[in-house]
Design goal:
- By secondary structure, this protein is of the alpha/beta class.
- The protein has a single domain, classed as Rossmann fold, CATH 3.40.50.
- Helices cover about 30% and strands about 25% of the residues.
- The protein has an 8-stranded mixed β-sheet, with helices on both faces. A 3-stranded antiparallel β-sheet has the order 1-2-3, with no helix packed on it.
- The radius of gyration is 20 Å and the shape is globular.
- The two termini are about 30 Å apart.
- Bound molecules: S-adenosylmethionine and zinc ion.
- Zinc ion binds next to loops.
């Protein structure tokens, strides 16, 4: 865990500001949260979790890590980086810049974006604080291995442990959002980037699993970019982008990794698992929309 400068963190119990030393985070009321040996902090209170191991399971995380390491989703990261750098120019930079990736999983996008932002903010003494937040402990333990400059937290996105109006930029990829919480977290003028799959995303994989998928025409991804998925009077949609790309998976291991990192594996019956296990080649589409919002002043 990197040393905190003007931390935006608040205590999940009493919502007072958290301070830290090398070993723990603590608030004036005496609530204290140890920094784990791997570097993360667990700010998830027992009543904020519905199960013993909330969020993505170990197996899902292992599959996602194996799949992402093969580089198939690099175009998604590249598009995210371009959008983040483009709109960061509109943010009045207080130092350090506060960036949070909510539902970060094992941090594939978070740690790369942290590195890219550090590169462009070189003239600042304390350029950046990046926060990667997920409810899954296994995801965060894996995230710690990527980048020790990112502050990795276990927390619930419905009550994030941050002060009001503390974030310059928030990213959310493949994860549901709570617009009211985003508005609370963002500074006036702050940027929110939301990445969500379109109807054609992984359609060739899904066709092996479900019998009722209606393929949509080539324009779907482009048309979808105009559909604003987040409606809040204080979040103004300022930019959209479609990403359409085909990937070719040519080993059963890659196909299995993709299948197991999606909810489709966990929703489908053993006979579908067997069907996908028999595939040795899969060409499938990545079809996503990027939505970029600015919080009203
Ligand atoms: C589909 S994964 C996406 C992970 C990452 N953004 C990516 O694209 O690689 C969704 C993530 O959201 C997390 N998640 C789900 N509900 C959550 C909640 N209420 N609070 C925090 N994280 C949550 C899961 O544990 C999982 O890691
Ligand atoms: Zn407290």
């Amino acid at each position: 865990m990197s040393q905190t400068v003007n931390s935006p963190l608040v205590c999940p119990v009493c919502r007072e500001a958290l301070q830290n030393n090398d070993r723990s985070y603590y608030c004036p009321q005496g609530h204290s949260f140890d920094i784990a040996r791997q570097g993360y902090v667990n700010l998830l209170l027992s009543h904020q979790r519905r199960s013993k191991h909330p969020g993505d399971s170990k197996e899902m995380i292992k599959a996602r890590q194996a799949f992402l390491a093969e580089g198939h989703y690099l175009p998604i990261y590249t598009a995210l980086e371009q959008l983040a750098l483009k709109h960061l120019k509109n943010v009045e930079t207080n130092s350090p810049l506060q960036v949070a990736d909510l539902g970060c999983g094992e941090g594939y996008y978070t740690h790369q974006l942290d590195k890219a932002l550090r590169k462009v903010l070189t003239e600042h003494k304390n350029p950046l604080q990046t926060w990667g937040i997920d409810i899954s402990k296994d995801a965060i333990i894996n995230a710690c291995k990527h980048n020790s400059k990112v502050n990795w937290l276990i927390a619930n996105l419905s009550q994030t442990p941050f002060a009001d109006h503390s974030m310059d930029m928030i990213t959310v990829l493949f994860c549901p959002i709570n617009a009211q919480e985003l508005v609370r977290l963002l500074k006036p003028g702050g940027i929110f980037i939301f990445v969500k799959p379109d109807a054609k995303h992984l359609i060739q994989l899904r066709e092996h699993i479900y019998s009722d998928i209606k393929g949509q025409d080539e324009n779907t991804a482009i048309e979808k970019t105009t559909d604003n998925p987040v409606h809040h009077p204080q979040l103004k949609l300022i930019d959209t982008q479609a990403l359409f790309h085909s990937i070719s998976l040519d080993t059963p291991e890659s196909i299995q990794a993709l299948f197991k990192m999606t909810p489709h594996y966990w929703r489908s019956k053993p006979e579908k698992h067997k069907k996908i296990e028999q595939l040795s080649q899969l060409d499938t589409d990545i079809s996503l929309s990027f939505f970029c919002y600015q919080r009203e002043h």
